[in-house]
Amino acid sequence: MNSYNPALAIGLDGIPYVVWHDDGVQNVDYDIYVRRFMSDTWQEVGVGSATGAGVISLPMDNSINASIVVDPDGAPYVAWMELVDGVWQIYARRWNGTVWEEMGTGSASGGGISDSPGSTHNPQIAMAADGTPYIVWQDQSDGDWEIYARRWNGVDWEEVGTGSASGGGISMNDAVSGVPTIVIPADDASLGNGVPYVAWIDFSSGNMEIYARRWEADGVQWITPTVAFAGSARSGYAPVSVQFTDVSEGDIGAWTWDFGDGTSSGARHPLHDYLAAGTYTVTLAAGGPAGGDVITRASYITVLLTAQFNAAPKSGTQPLTVTFTNASTGDIAGWQWDFGDGTTSTLQTPPPHIYATAGT
């Protein structure tokens, strides 16, 4: 007999519960077992909850990867993966003090709460302060793996916002999203007022990254991106090279920069050169599956003009012919030379100038 993948939860009364999957005495399939620590012993939660085929999952089917949470009244809830007709589904039950009951018809039979045509994996269950259980899992219904979520409203396992358990779900990515985890802070304004937070592994970037979303406090949608950026050198003499860094929050896959000088970029962290003196307003628009956002920062970049020149020779006997070379930097539109002897030029590089009179 072997035991696997334990999960632990502790109720407000301090009683710990442990759930796991076990090959039991049959040694032919996996079943969900659960015990709690009371009166100095690890007790079954209902007769048979940790022996034989168990009493939570279906006998003679494979049941694995359970998650457990305890509601404010001390009742444990368990979610797990159940292999049904060759497809993994998400099942859930709760202990009512007498039996492990379904929450609504079919939460632990048929297609369960997932009822997915594709496979489902890695359920995680969490409890809001008001006793509402939430379950998240990874689901292959959309053709690739997405993160799905549902909650029990006392009658049905409803979506947490339209589409949270269909199509692209919460993740809404074109690559694999999996192994979700969920946390719901206590009902405290400083902690989010019971808003669920979900994190998962995501391969959208081509690498294994950690993504996260939270359900908006107004109960309308999974939070949209919040766009923000920073720039390295924000002022200097032309040319000024600025490294822009996207520091936005949320699931973002597209960026559009307007540098304020007639140029733009679609890179996430662009490097941009400002050639002309002036003050520039920078705008970043970014978005992803959950929506988009725009930020404009007025007068964000200041570029100063650098006027320089070289002269040779700089001394000698009259008449002295001097060659002046323009060494100014920046996108310059006009030049005004004053040679100090009453003559001037508006050429970028004036012809050699002859000083006919002695002086400085």
Strand order of the largest sheet: 17-23-22-19-20
Which radius of gyration do the C-alpha atoms yield? 34 Å
- Gross geometry: rod-shaped
Coarse structural class:
mainly beta
Please report the total strand number as a whole number.
Answer: 28
Given as residue ranges, the uncertain stretches (5+ residues, pLDDT < 50) are none
**N to C succession of SSEs:** EEEEEEEEEEEEEEEEEEEEEEEEEEEE
Helix content: under 10%
Distance between the termini: 103 Å
Mean pLDDT: 89
Reported for the largest beta sheet, the result is: 5 strands, mixed
Individual helix count: 0
Report the β-strand fraction as a percent range.
over 45%
Overview of the molecule:
- The structure is a single chain.
- The protein has 360 residues and is mainly beta.
- The protein has no helices and 28 strands.
- The protein has strands spanning 3-10, 16-22, 31-38, 41-44, 63-70, 76-84, 87-95, 100-102, 120-127, 133-139, 146-152, 157-159, 177-183, 197-202, 209-214, 229-231, 235-237, 240-246, 254-258, 264-265, 271-274, 278-288, 291-304, 309-312, 320-326, 337-338, 344-345, 353-355.
- It has a five-stranded mixed beta sheet, with no helix packed on it. It has a four-stranded antiparallel beta sheet with strand order 1-2-3-4, with no helix packed on it.
- Strand 3 and strand 4 (41-44) form a beta hairpin.
